[in-house]
Amino acid sequence: MTVLLAVVLGVGTTVATVGVATATHRVAVVRAQAAADAAALAAAAALVGLVPGDPCSRASAVAEAGGAVLGGCSTAGADARVTTAIGSGAFAVSAVAVAGAPSGARHLCVYGVHVGPRSSMSRSTRTASHTGDVAGPGPTSTIDQGDTCQARRSS
Questions:
Q1: From the CB of residue 34, how many other CB atoms can be counted at a distance below 10 Å?
Q2: Other C-beta atoms within 10 Å of 30: how many?
Q3: DSSP string spanning 92-141?
Q4: Are residues 45 and 110 in contact, defined by beta-carbon separation less than 8 angstroms?
Q5: Band of pLDDT at residue 127, cut at 50, 70 and 90
Q6: Is the pTM of this model over 0.85?
Q7: Gyration radius (Cα) of the chain, Å
């Protein structure tokens, strides 16, 4: 009976240890991917001018805030590709994320909103001091906005 109890306890301990190790690895994978996604979005936002600063330094700051280390950062046009890593040695987990304009997009978009001289924001929500000098001429109404990156809504 003692031998059987020792075998059962040994198998139970082994199964529990493997389960905890698997769960810990999965948490690290999810954290690495979340940090990579956030860092890529920060780099893409810096590329199009939504936030100030160098895209890769923005990505590094966001990755570190997420508990990861920036492994690589590259930009091409309005796209940013970021690699992050969590852990070290045999337990290191890395993730890759890409952010930017969707492929085949005619205009530069961030979160589905047109970014550029013409804004999809209605005039009523813009400030009254908008002169058009910085952002260019705006739309004349909420219907006449030209091509935007999101579906038109009726007024």
A1: 17
A2: 13
A3: -EEEEEEESSPTT-SS-EETTEE-SSS-SS-GGGS-TT--STTT----SS
A4: yes
A5: very low
A6: no
A7: 24
Q: Which of 13-27, 89-103, 110-124, 125-139 has the highest mean pLDDT?
A: 13-27
**Interval 12-61: pLDDT, tens:** 999 999 999 888 889 989 999 999 999 999 999 888 888 888 999 999 99
3-state secondary structure of 18: helix
CA angle 76, 45, 70 (to 5 degrees): 70
Which residue matches tokens 């059962």?
Answer: 8
Q: Is 73 left (phi over 0), alpha (psi -120 to 50) or beta?
A: beta
DSSP state for residue 26 in the 8-state scheme: H
Record the tokens describing residue 13, joined without a space: 């301990």
132-152 pLDDT tens trace: 444 444 444 444 444 444 444
| Neighbour-count burial of 43, counting CB atoms closer than 10 A to its CB (0-12 exposed, 13-18 middle, 19+ buried) | buried
